[in-house]
Amino acid sequence: FTTQEERDIATQPRVQEIPIDQIDDFPNHPFKVRMDDNMIEMAESVKQHGILVPAIVRPKENGHYEMVAGHRRKLACTLIAKLQLPCIVRELTDEEATVIMVDSNLQREQLLPSEKAFAYKMKLDAMKRQGRRTDLTSGQIGPKLQGTRTNQLLAEQTGDSVKQVQRYIRLTHLVRPILDMVDQNNFALNAAVEISYLPEEHQNTLLEAMDYAQVSPSLAQARRIRAFSDSGKLDANVLDAILSEEKPLERKVTL
Questions:
Q1: What is d(CA 85, CA 18) in angstroms, rounded to the nearest whole number?
Q2: Tell me: the pLDDT tens digits for 24-35?
Q3: What's the first-to-final CA gap in the chain, in angstroms?
Q4: CA-based angle 66:44:23, to the nearest 5?
């Protein structure tokens, strides 16, 4: 027989050493784990000092674990042939796991627009699902929404305005090549938001036109392209005409 205190201690999260090959990535993880100088520095730090902050995982039905927070630490261990990763194992709902995964990565200094876009969308969807369910109480996501607009709450948590959160989420409707251009600063974010309202067929036609003209549309041009698309009059000739226009010099006025 065990005491209640012993049972309580047994159910508390604790750090465990888990084999790397038993930890699966979070499904549709929106953050890129880059093999860059920072990753090399992290691997060297892990080699010298070990993992200072345990990863967070949740158990899966097949006996493996699902990574919630710690994808970069897992790669660092792989690079130095460290076969186990210290982890905190927690029983989490899909919504709780999504929120922890997003929040733990939003603290990074450099995030691509596409990373913010899919992360914001995943967290917003999780918050909406949690608000609809009656079996979830206050926890990692916070109190039930009770009429609070989830986009407003998400904006408060991320530091971006509601409009900016909505702009980022719109980027998830872009075809991948255009989204990559946004990440590479070859396509202005606000112009890309306008283009995100185009059906995929028109976006691909725009890609061909941009490749031919070697230019991306300005915000004003993107709005005109969207208007033509909405009216069913957008084709390659219209796109060529718009993209071949000489763009006026932008003037910045400080009041």
A1: 5
A2: 999 999 998 888
A3: 75
A4: 10
**234 residue type, one letter:** L
**Cα 106 to Cα 63, 151, 159, 163, 179, distances in angstroms:** 29, 16, 11, 18, 19
66, 57 Cβ separation under 8 angstroms: yes
Confidence label for 248 from pLDDT (cuts 50, 70 and 90): low
Closest to 33 (Cα-Cα) out of 121, 119, 141, 105: 105
Phi, psi torsion values for 184, nearest 5 degrees: -90, 10
- 23: Cβ contacts below 8 Å, ≥ 6 apart: 55, 57, 64, 65, 66, 67, 74, 85, 87
Q: Where are the alpha helices (DSSP H) in 133-218?
A: 150-158, 162-170, 176-183, 189-195, 200-213
- Kindly state the average pLDDT of the residues 97-114: 89
Q: How many residues in the chain?
A: 255
